[in-house]
Amino acid sequence: MKRTAATKESFFQAFTRGDAGVKLTALFWGAGCLVRRQTGKGLLLLLEQTVLLLCVLLTLPFLRKLPTLGTVQAERIWDPVARRNVWNDYDNSFLILLFGVICLLLIGLYLLKTLQMVKAARQAEQTAAVGGQLPTLRQDAGRLLHQDFHRTLLFLPVAGVTLVMAIPLLVMILIAFTNYDRSHLVPTNLFTWVGLDNFRLLTSLANSSAFAYAFPRVLGWTLLWAVSATLSCYFGGILMAMLVNHRRTVAKPFWRTCFMVAMAVPQFVSLLLVRNLFADVGIINTLCKQWGVTDWLYRIGAIPTAGVIPFLTHPSWARPMILLINFWVGVPYQMLIATGVLINIPRELTEAARIDGANALQVFRRITLPYILHITGPSLISGMVANVNNFNVIWLLSRDVYVTTDQQLAAAGATEVDLLVTWLYRLTQDQSNYKMASVIGLLVFLVCSALTLVTFSRITGRGREEAFQ
Hints:
By secondary structure, the protein is an all-alpha fold. It is 68% helix and 2% strand.
C-alpha cells in the first residue's frame, strides 16, 4: 500500500523508513531538497544550518565552563614585553552563565529544527512517490505571505520576547542557585553554584540568619498589603460609584470630573506630595501640634514620643497610613470601572427584586455585587497581583523617610513596611546581593501565581460564570 503525503510519522519512523536523502537531512538540512532538485530551498536550509552551528560553536566555550562558572580569577600580572601590569585571561562567571544558557537554547533549537527537517524531507519523499508536485521556493515564500502570514508576523515578537524576557528570566532563576553577591562581584571575582543553600537560608525556621528572620515578616506584610489594598480600593470604588450614580445625588458630572482630575495627576507626584505633607516636619504634624492633637495622642499612649506624630516613621502608624494613602490614590480608578458596570446592570433585575420586597442591602448583596464580580473578576485578580508588586506606593512613601530600628531586619536589608519587591530592590541596588534577590524574585512569582489561581477559581468558577448568561 502506497503512503500518501498525509501520513504522519514520528522522527524515528521517518528516519528509518526514509531514503538516503532523508537520512542525510539529519546531518545536512538541505540534503533532502537537493536530492529532489529543490536547489534554492536546499541552499537556504544549509545556510540557516551553518549560521546556527556557527552560533553554537561561538558559545560552546562558555557551555564547557558552565558546571564551574569559571576557575581563573582576575588579577593583574607584569608583562615584561609591554613593561606594565596587564589583566590576565580571566573568567567572567556572569558571561559564562549567560552565554552558557544561550548555547543550551541554541542546541535545543538545533535539535528541534533537525527533527522538523527530517520529517519534512520524509513528507516530501512521500509526496514525490505518489506523483505529487513539490512546492518551489517561490511558492514557499508566497505561503509565508498568505496562508502562513500569521507565523511571519509572530516571528519577530517571539524572537524579541525570547531575547529580552525569556533568556534574562532564565538567567535570573539560575542566579538563585549561586553565591553571586557583593563578595563575588564580576569581573574581578568569581561566583559558583551553591545548590539550594540560598533557599534554606531564607526559609529555614531553624536558621538564625537575618534573612530567615526577615522573610516571614516581609511575606506576611506583603500578603496583608495585597489583600487589604486590593479589597479596600475595589469595594471603596463600588460604593463611591453607587453614591455618585444614586438618583438623589446632584451634580453628578461635577463629582465624576473631580475623580478624573485626581487620576490625571501622575501617581508619583501625588505620593511625593503626600509624603511631604505627613512628614515629621510636614504641615499635618505642624497643625496637629498647634491644635493640641499631638500632645493628646502622647498622653493616651498612641505615639511613642512627644512632639511629633510618626505617620510614616513608625510601623504602627506607617502601615495604616500607607493603606489609607493607597486607598485615596486607587479609589478613583476603581470608581470609574464600577460606574461603567453599574450602568449596564439590567433594570429588570433590580425592579423585580424590589417588587418582591427586597431592600437596598439585599439588592446590593444578591444582584449588584455578584454582577460586578462577574464582570470585573479578572480585573480584581490583576489588581491583587499588581499590589503584590506595587513598588511605587511603598517606595515613594518610605524612601529616605522610614528607618527601621529592628537590627535583624536592617541586617537583611529590609524594613517593616517593605514588600517582597521593594526588599528585592534594596538587595540589588544597596547591597549587591543578587543571589538572595533572585530567590525573592522566584518567591514573588510563586505568591502571585498562588493568589491568581485561588482568586480566579473562587470568583470565576463555573457556577458563577453561568449565573448571568
